[in-house]
Write a structure and sequence with these properties.
It is rod-shaped, with a radius of gyration of 51 Å. A hairpin with a 5-residue loop joins strand 11 and strand 12. It has about 500 residues and is an alpha+beta fold. Helix 6 runs antiparallel to helix 7. The strands form three sheets. A five-stranded antiparallel β-sheet has the order 2-1-5-4-3. Strands 7-9-10-12-11 form a five-stranded mixed β-sheet. The protein has a three-stranded antiparallel β-sheet with strand order 6-8-13. Helix content is about 50%, strand content about 15%. It has twelve helices and 13 strands. About 25% of the residues are buried.
Length: about 500
């Protein structure tokens, strides 16, 4: 169990992998070098032996080889002439009817003695010096050990009169090969030990940042979102560490927003519930019919406010859903006409609506909801007779909408915060008017779901403007006429007029 746990360690796995690669590389290098040196040395010996046969033909050319005695004389003369060759080289010229002529008689005597002993185990095998087959062969001699032999018949007038054998002992060759093996084993072991040390160090260095990420991940799993990896440098692991830190930042922010959202939502729901509970308690003992009717109207108004709040919460809860919007081609001019017609339902203001031609690929209900939230927000921060303008401008392939009012405006430090959930620039005033603090956050979610952006501009005392863009504009109907007809119907993207607000809403 402990071995399994040790082998599961990344550092151990890296060290084993590096050592295995080094060991495999050494083995392959040894095999390649060993075979190459062996082949080269063997080829050199074979070339020299073949050269000796060529020397014999050159030496014996024109010589008298008519009788065995003449062949013997030529053979002895040839062997005496080979003084510039290594003393270990063996020459054996076996003359028919005379016997072998050699520069190493002891070896030949020992070989003939072995033949005379009748070594049945070796008989007919052709692995001795005196019975080696024609051509190149490796044989075993009684006193010389392993030999590389070139055997060549000497032919005269169509008949074999003698056999030339030239041999080189392979003892030096075998000794060199054994030394090569020994050196490779020693060097290989040292290389493996060195590779193990280096691999252990490299594994520690490579695994260190990963272990740091693991420790931070364990802290996060325990609920601590404040720790960070703080990875510096370049490379994949450093990039992973920085991505991990960014993920933790977003996660911490999301958890914080979630806690704030739950706290604010529970607070917003608790207030109308408390009022409704008190209203029900009053109605239980109320005997006056008019007072009961007034209490019921108050109760229904609070129920409507809760219904809107719950709907807004559900919209925000589904902000990450891919089904938040269902875009289709809508007629931009008809959308603005419907908006202008429904504006008086929000309250007595001086409304102005610009018009524009073309088609927009967007969710009609969601774009209408964004405009309604911005208009209601402007109404809640203006008084009777103040001006509210709905502007529209085509910018390339996107449409820019803007809702402006002549109210008191927004402080500079509040321009970004008005899009936060449950934030109000004037909390008491907004609550008195029924604001939930979700209008602008919902507008931002819906605009961003379309791939657009939303912003606010204001100069205190001179009103405010909230604008947003929606991409997907075309001057003509676009490629899908059927989709456009489904969206627009026979009369464009008309819907039932917006229901009148149950009560003034506050700026979010």
């Amino acid at each position: 169990m402990r071995l399994r746990s040790l082998l599961s360690s990344l550092r151990v796995q890296l060290a084993i992998a590096i050592v295995a690669v080094v060991a495999l590389t050494l083995v392959l290098a040894f095999v390649a070098v060993y075979r190459a040196t062996r082949a080269n040395a063997k080829g050199r010996i074979d070339h020299e032996l073949a050269g000796q046969v060529a020397e014999w033909h050159e030496f014996s050319s024109g010589k008298n080889l008519s009788t065995p005695k003449a062949v013997e004389r030529v053979a002895r003369s040839f062997i005496r002439s080979q003084t510039y060759h290594p003393e270990s080289r063996i020459f054996v010229i076996d003359v028919n009817g005379v016997g072998p002529v050699t520069n190493h008689p002891a070896i030949v005597t020992a070989e003939r003695a072995r033949e005379d002993r009748g070594d049945e185990a070796r008989e007919g095998r052709g692995d001795g010096l005196l019975d080696s087959p024609s051509g190149l062969a490796t044989v075993e001699a009684e006193q010389a050990g392993r030999l590389r032999v070139e055997t060549h018949p000497i032919v005269r007038d169509g008949r074999t009169i003698a056999t030339l054998r030239v041999a080189d002992p392979l003892s030096n060759f075998d000794r060199d090969q054994a030394g090569l093996q020994r050196n490779f084993v020693i060097v290989g072991l040292l290389a493996v030990v060195l590779a193990l040390v280096v691999a252990a160090g490299m594994a520690v260095l490579i695994a260190a940042p990963l272990r740091r990420i693991t420790r931070v991940a364990a802290d996060v799993d325990a609920g601590d979102l404040d720790h960070r990896v703080h990875m510096e440098g370049r490379g994949e692991i450093a990039s992973l560490g920085r991505s991990f830190d960014r993920m933790l930042d977003r996660l911490k922010h999301a958890f914080g927003r979630q806690r704030e959202f739950v706290s604010d939502a529970s607070h917003e729901l608790r207030t109308p519930l408390t009022v409704m509970k008190a209203q029900v308690e009053l109605l239980r003992g109320e005997t006056d019919e008019r007072a009961r009717e007034e209490g019921l109207r108050t109760l229904l108004r609070h129920l409507d406010a809760m219904d809107r709040l719950v709907a807004d919460l559900l919209t925000l809860a589904g902000a990450d859903s891919s089904r938040l919007i269902e875009p289709q081609w809508i007629d931009l001019s008809l959308l603005l006409e419907d908006t202008a017609r429904d504006l008086p339902l929000f309250g007595e203001r001086d409304y102005r609506v610009e018009n524009a031609e073309g088609f927009l690929y967007a969710d009609l209900d969601r774009v209408t909801q964004v405009l309604r939230n911005l208009i209601r927000n402007a109404v809640n921060h203006t008084s009777d007779g103040d001006a509210i303008a709905v502007g529209v401008e085509v910018r390339g392939d996107e449409v820019e909408f803007a809702v402006s009012d002549t109210g008191p405006g927004i402080q500079a430090d509040q321009l970004e915060r008005i899009f936060e959930r449950f934030h109000r620039t004037d909390a008491s005033r907004a609550r008195d008017r029924g604001g939930s603090g979700l209008g602008l956050p919902i507008a931002r979610v819906l605009v961003e779901a379309h791939g657009g952006r939303i912003w606010a501009e204001s100069e205190p005392g001179k009103g405010a403007t909230v604008g947003f863009t929606i991409p997907g504009y075309r001057r003509t109907r676009g490629s899908s006429r059927a989709a456009l007809r489904d969206a627009a119907g026979n009369g464009g993207p008309r819907r039932a007029p917006l229901p009148p607000p149950a009560g003034p809403a506050g700026r979010v």
